[in-house]
Design a protein that fits this description.
- The chain is 35% helix and 25% strand.
- It has 230 residues and is an alpha/beta fold.
- It has one domain: Spore Coat Polysaccharide Biosynthesis Protein SpsA, Chain A, CATH 3.90.550.10.
- The strands form 3 sheets. It has a 7-stranded mixed β-sheet with strand order 5-4-1-6-10-7-11, sandwiched between helices.
- A hairpin with a 2-residue loop joins strand 2 and strand 3.
- Helix 5 packs across helix 6.
């Protein structure tokens, strides 16, 4: 049974200062890079793009004409948008949720997360922390060093079997979470971390967008996506 890919594009983009999911990246909207990667993965029966209710037309225009891609309205929070995606996922056995602000996730990462989720119930892309981690006060004074053993920096995609998300939603009630893995853990369910990608950066600020454009301009990332988009 094919999985469903939900691409969350319903954020406010307030920190970026622009509509980052529709911003130009290598001649195409940031959003389209994730759509192209999801299509190339070959494991999704459909792609659902979750957009702000007042931006449905603009987001729809960015993916117009792409077979198997739908745009739906999201909710007021990231978690609410994930539940909207779940409601729209038909009878898919696995739902992979991905942030549109991560344009460089390769097709192989989507494939890996779907495969692991089918086997274990969940698959969250991430990277083990390599840097020293310190906690500081508001003035920037270091207070303590945190043991990094076992710590991961979570990414997306995050894939789950349908029943895991259904149980998580029932347990969550009206609460919101930073990502879907946090909601699953809060429901008392386990989450399986899988190796992500260094290039799978998240565009949060305008500086991040500028860096992403620099990487594309130098041909360091997304070559397959650029060729497919062309």
């Amino acid at each position: 049974m094919p999985a469903t890919l939900a691409i969350l594009a319903a954020g406010s983009s307030s920190r970026a200062g622009v509509d980052k999911v529709l911003a130009d990246l290598g001649g195409h909207p940031v959003l389209l890079w994730s759509v192209q990667a999801g299509e190339a993965a070959g494991c999704f029966g459909e792609i659902v793009v979750v957009a702000p209710a007042d931006r449905l037309a603009a987001v729809g225009a960015a993916v117009r004409g792409r077979e198997g891609v739908r745009v739906i309205a999201g909710g007021p929070t990231r978690t609410a948008s994930s539940w909207a995606a779940l409601d729209s996922a038909g009878d898919a056995d696995v739902i992979a949720i991905h942030d549109a602000a991560r344009p460089f996730a390769p097709p192989s990462l989507f494939q890996r997360c779907v495969e692991v989720a089918r086997d274990t119930g969940s698959a969250v892309a991430g990277l083990p922390l390599a840097d020293t981690v310190r906690r500081a006060d508001e003035a920037g004074a270091s207070r303590e060093e945190i043991e990094r053993e076992g710590l991961w920096a979570a990414q997306t995609p995050q894939a789950f079997r349908r029943e895991v998300l259904v149980k998580t939603r029932a347990a969550a009630g009206q609460r919101s979470f930073s990502d879907d893995a946090a909601a699953v853990v809060a429901a008392g369910l386990s989450v399986k971390m899988v190796a992500g990608e260094r290039r799978n950066l998240k565009i949060t600020t305008f500086e991040d967008l500028a860096y992403a454009r620099e990487l594309v301009g130098k041909g360091l990332v997304g070559l397959a996506a650029r060729q497919a988009a062309g």
